[in-house]
Design goal:
The structure is a homodimer.
Chain A lengths: L3 H12 L9 H8 L3 H13 L3 E2 L7 E2 L1 H24 L7 H8 L5 H10 L26 E2 L8 E7 L6 H7 L7 E7 L6 E5 L2 E5 L1 H4 L2 E6 L5
Antiparallel strand pairs in A: 1-2, 3-8, 4-5, 4-8, 5-6, 6-7
Helix pairs in contact in A: 1-4, 2-3, 4-5, 4-6
The structure holds a DNA duplex.
Amino acid sequence: MINISQEDYLTAIFRNLDDAGEIKPNLLASKLEISNAAVTDMLRKLSRDGFVDYQKYKSIKLTSEGEGYAKNMLRRHRIWEVFLHQTLGMPWDKVHDEAEKLEHSSSDEIINLLEEFLDYPEVDPHGYPIPDKNGKMKKSKTVIAITELNENDSAKVIRVNDDVKNLLSYVTKIGIALGKVILIKDKLEYDGSVLIKIENKEINLSNKIASNIFVEKIKQVMR
Amino acid sequence: MINISQEDYLTAIFRNLDDAGEIKPNLLASKLEISNAAVTDMLRKLSRDGFVDYQKYKSIKLTSEGEGYAKNMLRRHRIWEVFLHQTLGMPWDKVHDEAEKLEHSSSDEIINLLEEFLDYPEVDPHGYPIPDKNGKMKKSKTVIAITELNENDSAKVIRVNDDVKNLLSYVTKIGIALGKVILIKDKLEYDGSVLIKIENKEINLSNKIASNIFVEKIKQVMR
DNA sequence: TAATATATTTAAGCATACTTAAATACATAA
DNA sequence: TTATGTATTTAAGTATGCTTAAATATATTA
């Protein structure tokens, strides 16, 4: 039987897979804020239990069973977030941490009832899609990170990474929220930061921040 | 910092205190379904952390801090139960086990928001009172166990113990629910069971069951 | 009061999930 | 290709919360 720790590992793995669908132990350790040794330890157990494909010194892949668990945790997490934000009125920068705990303590039955109560939401309060009972996610709009925009591009904020510490509260403080429109004023080569304009304020976003805010480009009006 | 296990112990202690406000390790072990040795172990930790008054071979008492935690857990538990039953429509015989998990994973903030959302319910789906933020419970009606009724007494069901395994589903099956009226047909001395009439059916309740269903006596109409 | 039964504690051991320190493998750059 | 740095694993150790078996204290009954 899977336990809370394993659920956390699988979720962290899934959230941080690279383009090849893999992740290195080192990155996993840093995401979970534990030692590399602890990761090695747990990988042996996850492998033994059939949740990951793992061989010494190699990158980690999820088995389809592991991926199933991970997606289900994401589903639980995001449905709880919607409930907390939408029904209970909890601010969007607080729901992640709360959902992190609730996701381990709720049966699929509760989650399904909640989903129905919430009228089948498609995204969580940060713009991330919610997997359905079968792990399918609705193909979402093509979004790109702010760092991928060019000077003079306009874009609408669609998604903000809720898994980066303090990002949401910072982002809220400077006036960014889902649906807000931004304009790229400048891109600074030397540190990868981006100067944006939002509601008549100009703000410099560090590369780390800009790369975790996802937007939909607004077509330029010819004139 | 208190952990889930400790929360479970404190809750179990509080739920099962005798008239003197004490409980023996043996009873605690059987309620938690673990060995006496494990209880001894944990009591030392709870005592070290200031949650219980404990001396070797003596009965256990809660400190006021321990009692505070216990009451808070009861509050969380019962508010979750109301939510699950009332908002999500989960049957009353299933909400206990689910709440048992959720109670450990929710901040006071969530509980307070939930309480407000539910419009400050006074009792859980099994008729138990919900402590307020300060641990105060509204003085509830005087209820007695069915075993304390006499032949020909009529009574209304006010409360059913949700902490006894399978009791609720059994009780539901035989047609007992909060608000239902029963009539005592007979009390059998030799095994302490009670013969009741409910909705024209006559049912024999074992002593264990009858002692866990609480009622309010209905005044006899003279005729 | 002494014998017996029951409750409680102690002791030794196990699994989990971590830690740090040391050993080893792998990757990169001269 | 070798040297160096980084990633990964192994080893040893810790706290938690259990277990069973044995020892001891307390309660009950003859």
